[in-house]
Amino acid sequence: MDEFLEHVHDPGWLIEQWPRIGVELENEAEDVLPALVESLDDPEWRRRTLAAQFLLRVARLRPEKVEDRAAVARASDILTEELRAADVDRCLWACLLLTEGAAPARAKPRLRRLMDHPDDRVRVCAAAALSTIDAGSATLIQTLRRALRDERPEIVLVAAKVFARLGVHSAEPVEELAGALANENDECVYPILLALAELGPQAHVALDAVRDFLSDRTRSLALRGRAARTIGCITRDSDDGLGVLSRALSSDAWEVVVGAIEGLVETGRATAQIVERIEGLLSSEHEEVQIAAALALGRLGPRAATSVPALVSRLKDRVSPGLGTALARTLGGIGPAAAPALLDIIRRHDVQAIPIASAAFAQMGSKGATALAEALKTETDEWGRAAFVALVRELGSEAGEAVPVLATILAETEDEELAATVLAAIDATGRAAMQAVPALVAWVGKGSDELAFAARRVLRNLGPEATQAVEEALADIPADERERLEGFLPQADDGLDRLFAKFDGVNDTLLWNFVYVADILIEHERAGRKPVGTKRMAEMLPERREQGAIPANFAAAERTLGLNIKKLQGLLRFRVQDNIPGRAGHLTPEARALLVEVKAYLRAKAQRQRRVNRID
């Protein structure tokens, strides 16, 4: 935290990193909050106010993480007091911090007074800060509209960002933004184009002005390229921008061509003819255009399936790391339609292109793993087969959906070399390997000593949770092949005894609370959805109970869910969430391992109780 707060003396870094910083602080709130609260007493006013702003941000966006309401009130007081500073720089700093979040309600009177400040910078920044909680003032809107015509880029940027965030309810603000494009200072025009792009179709009345800007050869090429992209944003879901953007693809300036490519994708109306033209730009003499074309085709996804041959042919020549990454992302984004061509690259032993093909399969995730597994069924080339399995192994847990196919191959093959590679791939999928238990058990019984050992290792890695599945699979194994499994089940029972010793002193409610929270976090992570807070988790209880995911008698309130997790962390000395920057709601490796043990323990405990009940 101390290192982070030192960046108050480097505004450029703060501006560049601001969005990522905010996300990371929200994600790691539980660990960061104590340091933020402590920093409210920092003697340096910039550091103190920056800490206050981020504490308020976390409290607003992740309220379930912030229990210290007194600290939140203090942070609000600190920023509000800075608005009263006689020093203009301190006042400006506080206004700008509030612009990036939401000003406290109690700051509203002071911000209104600052809109009459003699320094026009303070007036604009105060209006921007006030707009986060009250944008209904005519004076506020007028102040920001005048700022759009300012000659100072930083003032234009503040005003443009406010209009982009608020949206527009009439044509006047958009016309004001469009008029500001006439500013001869390029640094003032850039934020205007960004704001119009952010407004999207709301800024449609500015189309003619942006189109004229694109055609103005006196303006910088970089800005004309940005204007082309902006046209695509404000004509989204319509054909109004297709003509001018299609013509811009023929520009002799690569900056304009790149902007036109991005703009055409933004419209969402790329026709087959447009896709073909973008595909042709993969052979442009400018690498920037090649990368933009590749990324554009990737954003089109399966619609760009017809471009796979052109994309793959581009791999015949040596490509730069930047273009290679773009091609991998694009082929992966197109999905399974690109798989046959990528598999051919691997079969050809094309050492130069194989890393890109591998990255493309990784981009596809589970769909890529399934395509690789299907190819394994018929692949006869030893090298190709090993390469396909190696790629599945690289995907790890992402390859879970491929396990049934791998299990079928394992069950049907008599080829021990193939079986060895498939076993390694199944093992790499983690818990998903549970789907292959019958095939694994079969190879323990019939395989060579080496393969039997490998199959046993996969089963052991699954832990006690696999015991029941192994017992069921044993029923189908010939008696003369079962002896190799002796020792596995007793050791599984020993594992259960270990679990009973570990968890017997822990209240079942705490364990079910952990299972409930962890399962939801994992489900949202796998689906790529944003994590939910304890409030939403509490609301989901009836539905989860009905699905049988938790016992019928399990109940917990929003506050109880969080408190029970803290209690369990204290009892078992582990951490639930990780500290990887930029990620939220992900379980730590130790929490994931513990979840498997807890589920096995609860299941075994229920089974033992059922046996006791039958005896009774």
* Rg computed from alpha carbons, rounded to a whole number of angstroms: 30 Å
Content of β-strand: under 5%
Helix content: 55-70%
Largest sheet: none
CATH class of the domain at 505-615: Mainly Alpha
Gross morphology: flat
Using the 3D structure, state the CATH architecture of the domain at 505-615: Orthogonal Bundle
Number of strands: 0
Separation of termini? 60 Å
Query: What is the number of helices?
Result: 35
Kindly name the structural category: mainly alpha
Q: What is the CATH topology descriptor of the domain at 505-615?
A: Arc Repressor Mutant, subunit A
Q: Kindly state the mean pLDDT as a whole number?
A: 83
Model regions low in confidence, pLDDT < 50 over at least 5 residues: 490-494, 580-584
Task: Write structural notes for this entry.
With about 625 residues, the protein is an all-alpha fold. It has a domain of about 110 residues: Arc Repressor Mutant, subunit A (Orthogonal Bundle). It has 35 helices and no strands. The protein starts with a helix and ends with a helix. About 0% of the residues have low confidence.
